[in-house]
Structure formats: C-alpha cells, structure tokens
Design brief:
The complex is a heterodimer of chains A (about 210) and B (about 150).
Chain A lengths: L14 H17 L6 E6 L20 E6 L5 E3 L2 E3 L5 H9 L7 H9 L2 H4 L16 E7 L4 H22 L4 H6 L5 H11 L6 E7 L4
Parallel strand pairs in A: 2-5, 5-6
Antiparallel strand pairs in A: 2-3, 3-4
Helix pairs in contact in A: 2-5, 5-7
Chain B lengths: L18 H15 L15 E2 L3 E2 L6 E7 L4 H4 L4 E4 L2 E3 L4 H11 L9 E6 L5 H13 L4 E5 L1 E2 L4
Parallel strand pairs in B: 1-8, 3-6, 6-7
Antiparallel strand pairs in B: 3-4, 4-5
The chains are: A alpha/beta (about 210), B alpha/beta (about 150).
C-alpha cells in the first residue's frame, strides 16, 4: 500500500471565514427586533349613526355576564366584589354553557357537544338560556389600567377558546394556532365555533372617578 | 499484548471547516427574521402580557399605533400620547391617518385593515377608548391589542 506523504494541505484556509460571519451575525443580532404581530383580536362595534339609533336591547339580565372594573382595578362580577380576576375564565365558561332554557336549536347544539362539555352544563335557571343568547359584558372606567382590562378580556377569550377547542378535541393552544389557511383548518375552526358566537361586549367606559 | 499498542498518529486539530456554515446558518436566521426599525418610537412601550394570543395571516393589513407616555417628557409632557408613523398626533387626526393607511392597501383588502394597538401597560383606559372611538369613526374596526406571551402555570 502506497502511503501519501505529508503534503501541504490543498484546502483554502477557511478559519477566518467564521470571524467574518460572526461580525455579520453580531450586526444582525443587535439590529433585530423580532416582529411581534401577536395580540388579542377585537372587533369594535360599528359607529353610531345619529339618524339611526341602535335598536333597544331587551335581553334578559340572566343572559348577560356583567364585569365592571373600576378606577382602582377592582372588579364587580355579577354584582359581587372581588380584588382579582382569577378563576373568571371558568365562571364564564360555566355561564356560556349553562343551557338554562334552550330552544330547539340549542337542544340540537347541546346534543352535539362532547361528553366533557356536557358535564359542565348546569341548567341553572338564573344563568344564561343558551350559548347563542349569552353575552359577556366588560365595562371599564376611564381610570382603569389597560393592563387589568386586557387581563380580563384575555380571560373572557380564554373561556370561549377553551370551549371551541374542547369541541373539536384539540388543546386550546392548538386551536388558537389555527389560522384558517386551508380548508381543513377552516372547517375545524367553524366546527368549534358553530352555534356558540364569541359575544364579548366592551361597553363604553364611565367618565366618573378617573 | 502488542496488538493493543496505541496507534501512532491521530489528528490533533478539530476540523473547523464546518464552523462558517453553522455561523452562516445563524446569520441567515437573523437576517430573515430581522425587521429594520424604520421609525423612532417616541412613547414608552412596555407591552402587556396575555395568554390568548393570535397571529394574523396577512401582515400587510396591519398598521401600528403606539400609545404611551412620551419618552421626552420635557417636550411632550407626561400624559399618554398617540403615535402613528413617525409623529405624535392628537385623537382628531386618527381618522385621517387611518384613511391614508387604507389607501396604501390593495382595493380588495381595504375593508380588512387591522390596527395593532401597541399600548404601554401603564396607560389608563381613557385615552384608549378615545382612540377606539376614532377608529370606529374611521370604520377600521379590527383591532389587535399587541401583547407578549405569558408563561402559563
């Protein structure tokens, strides 16, 4: 076997290439702001038409889940005072899924729910009639901090997303990650939402006490 | 036991020829994710945290509005202000600004314009509701409350 003798290597010396790349890398590291286009989507109501006042709303009190936040960031949930919004998502979930007085459509909806959601149906006569009627109302004060408002809004969204995700047998995070890019994803999203509209109403803030 | 004698020569240097490739890969990652900031943000931005974040599919539809306490309090005061594009503006200019932004979009997408509100967490709801009233006036009703992810326990 003929062995090769030690010859000068024929490779180009690429050691300093890393240094050059490092310099570029550091430049981009410093200038990078990873675009954060994430957030909580909200759709505002259409503007008021002075000639065409909004229709009188005759909803039963039991179909509205009232959340008030005052200027000290204290909450009044369904007439009950509390200091922090912990556990609000579970309460909203129970409220939406109450089925106190379902009509025919809501009964079909109820029958289509998976067993885990059916187990949460309380049928309380004092709470919402059925998900199509239920409205979560959040009212703030001009002095309420944005942070607290967002926290409560976040919990209300979480309640709905939990329900949707459980209906289609996904995790909440997985459901929320659906973007509706293809038909399969869109079908899944529609199946989750069907019959349970996300009714979160943001009332105009109070002017007093800011 | 002569069979197990040490091999005479081993390569002593670690081959570093693949190092540039690794670094380049990192480099490309950062190049792709980088958005060079084209505007100075004149207001404080401590973005609040939330859990139920959603991503929008079309980034071109998003216009940004920044609300917070001005960084330069000597010049702009300490009350929360609204910034869009490169300048601070009053609430009454928002309708005009939204219309300008909408005109930049292709015609089919104009109804879907989304305003990403980057609001400092110390701002109160008063200024925010004023902005939202103006956005309703301008018929730009899709609003994204920009927030960062919260670690869930």
């Amino acid at each position: 076997m003929a062995r090769k003798k030690n010859r000068p290597s024929q490779e180009v010396n690429a050691g300093s290439m890393a240094d050059i790349a490092f310099l570029l890398l550091i430049f981009f590291l410093v200038t990078t702001t990873i675009a954060s286009d994430k957030g909580i989507l909200n759709v505002l109501p259409p503007k008021l038409d002075p000639n065409n006042p909004p229709p009188e709303i005759d909803k039963n009190e039991r179909n509205i889940f009232n959340i008030l936040i005052n200027a000290n960031d204290q909450l009044l949930v369904e007439g009950e005072f509390r200091d922090n919004p912990d556990g609000l998502d579970e309460e909203i979930k129970l409220f939406v899924l109450n089925f106190g007085l379902p009509n025919d459509e809501a009964t079909t909806l109820y029958n289509s729910l998976p067993a885990s959601l059916k187990a949460q149906v309380k049928r309380d006569a004092e709470s919402s009639d059925h998900p199509g009627e239920a409205v979560v109302s959040i009212k703030t004060n001009r002095g309420t901090s944005y942070d607290k408002y967002l926290e409560v809004f976040d919990l209300a969204k979480k309640a709905y997303f939990d329900i949707y995700a459980e209906r289609v047998n996904l995790g909440t995070d997985e459901y929320r990650a659906l973007t509706g890019q293809d038909d399969a994803e869109r079908a899944l999203m529609d199946r989750g939402k069907e019959g349970i509209p996300m009714a979160i109403s943001i009332a105009e803030p109070d002017k007093i006490g800011s | 036991m002569a069979k197990f004698s040490k091999k005479t020569k081993t390569e002593e240097s670690i081959p570093t020829s693949a190092l540039p490739d690794i670094i380049f890969m990192l480099l490309f990652f950062f190049m792709v994710t980088t958005v060079l900031r084209e505007q100075d943000i004149l207001v404080e931005q401590k973005i609040p945290q939330a859990t139920q974040l959603q991503k929008l599919q079309k980034k071109t539809l998003i216009s940004y509005i920044y609300i917070g306490k001005p960084k330069n309090t000597a010049l702009y005061g300490s009350e929360p202000r609204v910034q869009a594009n490169d300048a601070l503006m009053g609430a009454e200019d928002i309708v005009q600004w939204v219309n300008q932004e909408r005109d930049l979009l292709p015609e089919a997408d104009r109804g879907m314009i989304t305003i990403s509100m980057k609001v400092d967490r110390d701002v109160k709801m008063g200024p925010i509701s004023d902005v939202q009233t103006e956005l309703r006036e301008a018929d730009a009703r899709r609003v994204l409350y920009a927030s960062t992810g919260k670690v869930q326990n």
